[in-house]
Structures are given as structure tokens and as C-alpha cells.
Amino acid sequence: MSNIVETKCLIIGSGPAGYTAAIYAARANLKPILFTGQTPGGQLMITTDVENFPGYPNGIMGPEMMEDLRKQAERFGTEINYELIERVDFSGDIHKAYSDGGKEIHAHSIIIATGADAKWLGLESEQKLMNKGVSACAVCDGFFFRGQEVAIVGGGDSAAEEASYLAKLCPTVHLLVRRDELRASKIMQERVINNEKIKIHWNTSTQEILGEEEVEGVRTINNVTKEVSEIPVKGFFVAIGHKPNTDLFKGVLDMDEASYLVTQPDSTLTNVPGVFACGDAQDRIYRQAVTAAGTGCMAALDAEKFLEDKGVH
């Protein structure tokens, strides 16, 4: 039999968005209950140095920052459950969620902060050198490779944008494109092609990222000629897209074509009253810890107003 838990505010997810929502919701006396999901702390748990989050002048390790946010959320009374929400039912006035630990949560409001995961190539060397030169975020980590050659994989707008960003920091950016054309928008294609610091390798796939303790290069193969080459680089960036963790809400909440949750303009409101979305599950553009935290704050304020209008005290 399920263990029924009742709350004014349920938060699903535990990255910067979820924890920030919890801090604000708890301070508003909503007595939030937060379910961390499979990866407490989200993507920052696999990030070493975070140097672009305000308030940490010397930088901070991703896991340490998430621990700080967790402690802050708990300090104000957030109840944290290290379980995964497996199913939801938003059909009634009281929303229901079901955890893998057997809990049935009845909530007047729900904040979704389930995040998104970067898509990877699936190479063993990619995992081995993660955070040792391999990254999925040029804006986050490009700073560490100033004055050094780097490679980036992808052919869409994200890859083009990140290659252009890296070109401001690095003498040469090797853009590895699987096909003989870019999928990016025309304006982004022109920027990349006309940037003398960006060297495009057409019809090129990555065989292996080279190096033992840090990235030293990349071995590639030309998909047409089958020629194998090695490019010496110190950084290797993967920009083949992100997948929002929103499968749980398919058929329940409105999503765009890439499965990001759709919210009303200038808010975190979804198409279901009392359900709010924040962080990378809803943001396909910025995908930064600080913007996720900002939308987590917005979601808590939106939830507080919703409950006040509904007369839930």
C-alpha cells in the first residue's frame, strides 16, 4: 500500500533550479518536499570547477556547490527525499506523484526542475577524460583553454555558437562535422565559415579522444575517404544537443518539438494550473546554473501566488 504524503508544494529535481525553488518556497512557509531523482544535484555533480556562478570569487567544485544549496534548502525546512518520481497524475485539483520508494504525494502545487542531459558520442575515452579536457559546455569551460587549440563536434546552431565563442579565446577551433554541410541556420553558418580561427573538417567523425590524464588530441576518420587523422588539441567539446528529462510528463504537459516544457511568457506556468517548470527542463537557450537558479526562484514565487489565490494556507 502506498505511503501517502500531503504537501502544499512538491519539487521534482535537485539541481540549481530545484534547490533554489526549495529555498524560496520554504522561506514562504510552503513547507516544500523535494525529490532529488536519480542524480541529486544534477549535471553539476559531474562538473569540477565552476567559476562563473556569482558569489564564489575563487570558483567552486560543482558537487560542493550543490551541497551548499542542499544545506541552504534544508536550513529553511525543505524535506528532501532521495527518490525518483516515476509517475504523475495532474487530472485533479490536487496533483499526484508516485515515487520509486512507494510514496504517493498529494500536492497543491508542483515545481518541475528535472533538468536536461547533454548528448554524448558514447566513446570510452570521452568518459575517461570527462572534466579533464572533455566538456559539453563551451561557455562554462572555454575559459580554461585560452590560447590553446580545441576541437568541437556538431553541425547545428549550438555547435556553431559554441565554436564562435571558443574562437574568441583560442587560436584555432577545429569544428568536426559528420556531413558535408552544416545544419545550423544560415546566419550561423556564415559566421562560422567566415571566421578564420575556425577550421571546418567536413565528413568527419571522432574515433577516439587521445590522452591519459588530460586531453592531448583527437583521432578522426573521414567518412568519405576513410582517411584517419590525428589533431593535437587540449580541449574537446561535444555540441550535438541536449535531451531534457521530461519523458515523465509526455502527454500531460505541453512541450516543444525537442521535448522542452513550454511555459507561458514571462512566467514558469505550464498548461496545467498549479504546475510550474524551471531550469534546463524548460530552458533550451541559456542552460547555465545561474539562469536555472533564477527560474527556480520564479517558479517558487509563481507557486506561492497560485496557492495564495487558491486560498491554500
Would you write up a description of this structure?
- The two termini are 29 Å apart.
- The protein contains 7 helices and 19 strands.
- The chain has 313 residues and is an alpha/beta fold.
- The strands form 5 sheets. Strands 1, 2, 5, 6, 7, 8 and 19 form a 7-stranded mixed sheet that branches.
Succession of helices and strands = EHEEEHEEEEEHEHEHEHEEEEEEEH
- Broad shape: elongated
Helix fraction?
10-25%
Overall pLDDT score: 94
Task: Detail the topology: elements first, then pairings.
Blueprint: E1 3-12, H1 16-27, E2 33-35, E3 49-50, E4 60-61, H2 62-75, E5 79-81, E6 85-89, E7 95-99, E8 103-112, E9 116-118, H3 124-128, E10 134-135, H4 138-141, E11 150-153, H5 157-167, E12 173-176, H6 186-193, E13 198-201, E14 204-210, E15 217-222, E16 228-231, E17 235-238, E18 242-244, E19 275-277, H7 289-310
Parallel strand pairs: 1-2, 1-8, 2-5, 8-19, 10-17, 11-12, 11-17, 12-13
Antiparallel strand pairs: 3-4, 6-7, 7-8, 9-18, 14-15, 15-16
